[in-house]
Amino acid sequence: MARLSVVVLTALLGAVLTGPAAAQWKWRDKGGQIQYSDLPPPSGVAEQDILQRPQASRRAPVASAPVAPATIASAPKTVEPELEARRRKAEQDEAAKRKAEEDKIAAARAENCVRAKGHLRTLEDGIRIARVNDKGEREILDDQQRANETKRTRDIIASDCK
Questions:
Q1: pLDDT tens by residue, 93-118
Q2: How far apart are CA 149 and CA 153, in angstroms?
Q3: pTM recorded for the entire structure
Q4: How much is the pLDDT for 104?
Q5: DSSP for the chain?
Q6: Domain boundaries defined on the chain
Q7: Residue 92 to residue 88: CA distance in whole angstroms
Q8: 142 FRET partner, CA 20 to 30 A, in 6, 66, 112, 132?
Q9: 26-72, pLDDT tens digit by residue?
Q10: SS3 sequence of 112-140
Q11: Are 139 and 133 in contact (CB under 8 A)?
Q12: 14-35 pLDDT, tens per residue?
């Protein structure tokens, strides 16, 4: 009795393990080499070069009549839905990342614009402006420095306030 159960168990295990092997594609590539895969062969492989298909994907025999190019172009592609969904998800994630980066840059430009306009008003009001130089000393802007700072601020406004 124990021997019978071992044989039955071995047969069942063998049947389970050979199931995935039956879902293999086998085709001859352009170089004449035999290729094996669990994915369909590339679209450029001729029908007569496909040597084995999984049982679930048997195609109907191809008619010998010529096929119009429009029919070939409109034929559905054999792409796995899961891979296609991952590809679309990656594209959407990349687009969202680009959009977020563009929004971040636009917000920084808007903030720079507001600051530059405020600084320009201060410069044009004629108020004395002091800043700290490289030595850490406080210095007051003279007319030439004020004119240079006004020009630089106007350039920033021209580039960031569009």
A1: 999 999 999 999 999 999 999 999 99
A2: 6
A3: 0.42
A4: 94
A5: -HHHHHHHHHHHHHHHHHHHHHT-EEEE-TTS-EEEESSPPPTTS-GGGEEE--GGGPPPPPPSSPPPHHHHHHSPP---HHHHHHHHHHHHHHHHHHHHHHHHHHHHHHHHHHHHHHHHHHHHHT---EEE-TTS-EEE--HHHHHHHHHHHHHHHHHH--
A6: 81-162
A7: 6
A8: 112
A9: 889 888 898 888 888 888 888 888 888 887 655 555 554 455 555 55
A10: HHHHHHHHHHHHHHCCCCEEECCCCCEEE
A11: yes
A12: 666 665 555 588 889 888 898 8
The position carrying tokens 């049982």 is 55
Tokens of 20: 């995935």
Tokens 């010529």 found at = 66
pLDDT at residue 59, as a whole number: 53
